[in-house]
Amino acid sequence: MKLPDPNAVLPHGFPMLLVDKSLDHTPGREIVTEKRVGPEEPCFDGLEEGCDPLYPSTLVLESLVQSGALLWLDHLERSGKLESATLLLGGVRGCRISGTVRAGDTIVHTVTIDRLFDDNVIFSGRSAVDGIEVMSIESVVAALRAN
């Protein structure tokens, strides 16, 4: 089975596409994605030489949520339900930051769809670097609205 391609499925482009590739995928249920944090990231522009470049937690969160969107949009496309619509973030609950991400790290996100309702979804997830959790989310609510 072909893994979802973030560049083809998500409506984002550089520099806001924060998912590099899919690693594993159970359609409509779970996805594992990867984001390599390179020193060329725009968030590191202007940092002084020799400082410790920490990747902002808000961008880890955005990357995790984009992974959930990739899973959901792929599910809608496979089931023939994806129409011209706008994906909206409804809210995030239970976000726990438990580690740091630095330039050179690779973040692995694991996202699970917990509940589907017509044009709404609830998913949860975790992000890890070298197998150590750096963020977890109890739930994300997202919706599709017709254009």
Overall pLDDT, averaged?
92
Tally of DSSP β-strands: 6
Secondary-structure element string: HEEHEEEE
**Relative helix content:** 10-25%
**Termini separation (Å)?**
30 Å
Tell the overall outline: globular
- Kindly identify the CATH topology: Thiol Ester Dehydrase, Chain A
Level-2 CATH architecture: Roll
Tally of individual helices: 2
Which structural class fits the helix and strand makeup? alpha+beta
- Rg calc: 15 Å
CATH class membership: Alpha Beta
Spans with pLDDT under 50 lasting ≥5 residues? none
Walk me through this protein's architecture:
Helices cover 18% and strands 43% of the residues. It has 147 residues and is an alpha+beta fold. The protein has a single domain, classed as Hotdog Thioesterase (Thiol Ester Dehydrase, Chain A). The protein has a six-stranded antiparallel sheet with strand order 1-2-4-5-6-3, covered by helices on one side. A hairpin with a 3-residue loop joins strand 1 and strand 2. The longest helix is centred in the middle third of the chain and has 22 residues.
